[in-house]
Amino acid sequence: VTIKRLPKTRSGKILRGTMQKIADKEAWTMPATIDDPAILEEITAALTERGIGV
User: Fold this and answer.
1) pLDDT confidence of residue 49
2) Per-residue pLDDT of the chain (54 residues; tens, 9 = 90+)
3) Which pLDDT value is given to residue 12?
4) 5 CB contacts (<8 Å, ≥6 apart)?
5) ∠ at Cα 53 (14, 47), nearest 5°?
6) How many CA atoms lie within 13 A of 49 on its CB side?
7) Which uninterrupted H or E stretch holds 44?
8) CA–CA separation, 35 and 51 (whole Å)
9) What 8-state DSSP symbol labels residue 50?
10) Which of 8, 10, 19, 24 has its CA 20 to 30 A from that of 35?
11) What is the per-residue DSSP string for 3-42?
12) Of 15, 25, 12, residue with least CA distance to 54
């Protein structure tokens, strides 16, 4: 799956663990330190569109 941007914290770290939880259909919470929360919704939509994850 190709996405336009990756979810990052305000300090620039990529939220790999959260993306993995979305792909594995595990419960996840929105991290308080995320720079742009809409990115996780875009990732969820892209994975769902391809039958992966949620």
Assistant:
1) 92
2) 888 999 999 999 999 999 999 999 999 999 999 999 999 999 999 999 999 875
3) 95
4) 39, 42
5) 70
6) 9
7) helix 38-49
8) 27
9) T
10) 24
11) -S---BBTTS-B-HHHHHHHHTT------TTBS-THHHHH
12) 25
- In this predicted structure, what is the pLDDT of residue 42? 93
Number of domains within the chain: 1
**Which token pair is 41?**
């919704």
User: Would you state the structure tokens that stand for residue 37, as one six-digit string?
Assistant: 């929360």
Which domain covers residue 26, as residue numbers? 1-54
Tokens 């569109």 label which residue? 49
DSSP 3-state of 51: coil
